[in-house]
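JOB MANIFEST
job_type = single_chain_structure
chain_count = 1
residues = 532
[input]
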Amino acid sequence: MSGAQVFRQTSSIPIKKGVNEVVIKDVSPYVTQQQLQATSVGNFLILDVQMQTEYVPPKNYQSVIVPAKTQKEITRLEDSVLFLTFELERINEKLNNLASEKSMIKQSQLIKSGGLSDTLPEFKEIVKFYRAQLDDINELIVSWKKRQHKTSIRDKKHKERLQELRNYANNTQQPNVPAKTRYHVVVTTYSEYGTSGRIKVNYFISNAGWIPAYDLRANSTSEPIDITYKAHVYQNSGEDWDNVKLVLSTYDRTYSATKPTAGVWRLDYTVNKPVQPVAVNNGISNELYYSQNVSSPVEAQSALRNMKESGKYKNVNLTYVPGSSLSTISQNFSNVEFEVKLPYSIKADGSQKLMVVMNEKVEAKFFHYMLPRMNKYGFLQAKIGDWENLSLLPGKANIYFQQTIVGSTMLDPAAMSDTMELTLGRDQGIVSKRKKISEEERKVGLSKRILKEYTFEIEVRNNTRSSVELTLEDLIPVTENEDIKIKMVEGNGAYLNDTSGMLTWQLKMKPNGKEVIRFTYSIEHEKDKPVS
């Protein structure tokens, strides 16, 4: 699943008498000599196989003459850009002159004196003159700025087009193939006479692999489930795989190729020797610390309870030490190979190529599951048995029901039980309503203890047109405190898991049917000690 074994072969080639060298070109640059093998198909011998590198210098285009039409356009644009440069200079000078003229009028002594030495009619004539002059100058400035803007736009477009044509003309002289290094396999052969044959080579590359994935599809509760095996294949080997045949394997090349030895497997009775407790004074007070190794979880719980009740030890440290074994037996999944039926092309860019490997149909048992305290709707479940024969690998699986994706899950064969259980989504046709019916509290005799009793009711409706098998669950509290007593008063036929407090009912519901479940439990504890 990590790495790839690449197989290549030549067509039928002539083999001369004596020693020959056959070059298989352009293999992956990540091949090492130790990972390279060659095989002959014909009446000749292979003497050696080696990796070889070849430096390829850059290759230039032949000198290309720029077309006359393009050269003519370049000349015209150069003239236009030169003319527009002069035109922009003239416009800028005109705007500078108008700005100076405007400033000169504003700085005139006639305006600054305010007409104190002149008569009123003369002053009015002066103001009228200056106003007319300034209006004319402002109109000229606006007109020339518009002209400047249009000329600048034309100048920019001409320069951009001229640059494009100059780049085109310059690139006709640039190399079209840069320098690179090529990697080849050189196979040395020997024959006592002239013949022909083929040469096969194979090599291992580490920067490639595949990731398994699955689609689980169920169209109805009366049909088998379709399992589609998929694979995300990637490679970054430096050589593109064009229309190649693929075999996906679970073989692990990291396993040692050295022949294993079994040694001796001896059996004997396992004797757990009692270990005396060690009480250590902490040197500060008379409080003692207790430490002991125990051989089972049951013994650990019993010892822990006894030490706490004694009240002599401040800290109790118990370590569970299981009986040691003289051997370790590990079981691995057998190596599986999937031959992909269709050829694929995979680029050497590290991107993942999704492909379908195979399809399988498996029988499944469908049922509904409901946990009303968390969700009022039922969930369609499917159980698949004998999944060990499916050669599943750890991977992500998309789950579809009636052509709609309803979720995803992770398939991990190492962690799954004998039966694989899948959730196929929420079924809004199976609905429930949960409510508390009563809560009673009373004293226990003449003690300071109280007893609380709770009753809940669950109403389940099957609004579909088909019968369903429903697993209904609810929860009552559990405790590790022996002073708190929890009792199941009425379970209405439920199975109670004493460890988790889970109540389970198995119901067979008719179309448009209804079931009402009531259950009651009690909690007894000290009245003055709140329970939560």
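[summary]
The chain has four helices and 29 strands.
Residues 273-299, 318-333 have pLDDT under 50 and may be disordered.
exit_status = 0
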